[in-house]
């Protein structure tokens, strides 16, 4: 069974959504990529399939006194996908899925952050996968620790909106259209 994560990214993508925090948090410093994660869950024939992107970069800017001014940018190396097997990884970087040769990166750029209260936020932004750009909303929580700030969130994208899964893979009975993107970004806390 080919583990198609398809869209995940975005996560990128999504993930970038985490550009804000709470008033009790320290200002955000550099993202600690080794502690961060951009992952996804897709369904193949109704069975959940987990995957992740192993290479990405993230830039966050956040002032706890002004969470609305938070900014995030996440760029994902599409060839770094781990969809569970070498066969699946080879398939999803190909032309019918991510077409990583022509579109080597996917990216999320925030356009605004809205505080929801209780350490919860929602980031708006654009997600680009392949040659398609769509607006996304990603809810997330922020947790401040002694030396770091952690952002955790999740959102759903439709792979068809990004042209992911073409040809024989366009059938949603085999691989579901909806893909859940999960992210954890850990950033150093500025003093």
From TrEMBL:
All copies of domain Lipid/polyisoprenoid-binding YceI-like, residue ranges: 30-188
Sorted UniProt keywords: Signal
Gene3D superfamilies, alphabetized: Lipid/polyisoprenoid-binding, YceI-like
InterPro entries to which the protein is assigned, alphabetical: Lipid/polyisoprenoid-bd_YceI, TTHA0802/YceI-like_sf
Signal peptide start and end residues: 1-25
SMART domains reported for this sequence: YceI (SM00867)
Pfam family, one: YceI
SUPFAM superfamilies to which the protein is assigned, alphabetical: YceI-like
UniProt protein name: YceI family protein
């Amino acid at each position: 069974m080919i583990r198609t994560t398809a869209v995940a990214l975005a996560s990128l993508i999504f993930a970038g959504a985490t550009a804000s925090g709470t008033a009790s948090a320290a200002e955000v410093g550099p993202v600690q990529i080794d502690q961060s994660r951009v992952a996804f869950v897709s369904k193949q024939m109704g069975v959940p399939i987990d995957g992740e992107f192993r290479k990405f970069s993230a830039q966050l800017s956040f002032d706890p006194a002004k969470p609305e001014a938070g900014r995030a940018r996440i760029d994902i190396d599409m060839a770094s996908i781990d969809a569970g097997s070498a066969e699946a990884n080879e398939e999803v970087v190909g032309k019918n899925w991510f077409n990583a040769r022509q579109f080597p990166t996917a990216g999320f750029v925030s356009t605004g952050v809205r505080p929801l209260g209780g350490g919860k936020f929602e980031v708006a932004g654009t997600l680009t996968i392949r040659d398609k750009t769509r607006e996304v909303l990603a809810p997330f929580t922020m947790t401040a620790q002694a030396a770091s700030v952690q952002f955790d969130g999740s959102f759903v994208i439709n792979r068809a909106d990004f042209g992911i899964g073409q040809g024989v893979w366009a059938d949603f009975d085999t691989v579901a259209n909806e893909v859940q993107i999960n992210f954890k970004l850990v950033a150093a806390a500025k003093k």
